[in-house]
């Protein structure tokens, strides 16, 4: 493993903005799809069945004609023996797939859907532009489905295939507002 990366993964230094260690920052989470209004409050999952119209829950979002489910986008870290940067993000599905997913979710049988086309519904990094075409791979036993970028010329697709270099990872964390000097350098 890259020595600098190994040191950072076990470092107790904390980000000055949020108090998280570097290892903790390896999972970031978006609480809603980018298009979803900040006015919508995150509710329990039952609200997606009980309410009509726009709704945001922990794992589902219905917004106008759009349908979203919570998903994970994993970026392997280069030279790390399997460490990943995990983004808790949102996938946009067509309505039929969304309904099927919703039906299977409580029974923890979404894996039977296999893989479905989806759009990454959060710009990664923030402000990076148009939605990205993906495949959404269902996972067993209540695990979040995983997004795999399918646009081969997209920067995220390259990062998924070849792994993220430490410098690129630091740039990503910086784009999410974290205070890198407090994590990277001894004070
Ligand atoms: Zn921070």
Automatic annotation (TrEMBL):
**What domain of life does the UniProt record list for this protein's source?**
Bacteria
Q: What is this protein called?
A: DUF2199 domain-containing protein
The organism of origin for this protein: Phaeobacter gallaeciensis
């Amino acid at each position: 493993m890259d020595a600098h990366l190994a040191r950072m993964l076990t470092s107790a230094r904390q980000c000055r903005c949020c108090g998280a260690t570097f290892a903790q920052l390896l999972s970031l989470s978006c609480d809603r799809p980018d298009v979803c209004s900040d006015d919508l409050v995150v509710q329990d999952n039952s609200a997606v069945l009980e309410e009509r119209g726009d709704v945001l829950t922990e794992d589902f979002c219905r917004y106008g004609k759009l349908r979203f489910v919570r998903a994970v986008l994993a970026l392997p870290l280069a030279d790390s023996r399997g460490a990943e940067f995990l983004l808790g993000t949102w996938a946009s599905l067509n309505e039929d797939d969304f309904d099927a997913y919703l039906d299977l979710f409580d029974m923890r049988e979404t894996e039977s859907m296999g893989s479905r086309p989806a759009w990454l519904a959060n710009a990664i990094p923030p402000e990076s532009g148009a939605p990205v075409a993906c495949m959404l791979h269902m996972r067993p036993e209540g695990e979040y489905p995983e997004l795999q970028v399918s646009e081969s010329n997209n920067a995220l697709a390259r990062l998924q295939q070849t792994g993220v270099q430490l410098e690129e990872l630091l740039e990503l964390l910086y784009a999410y507002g974290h205070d890198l000097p407090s994590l990277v350098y001894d004070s």
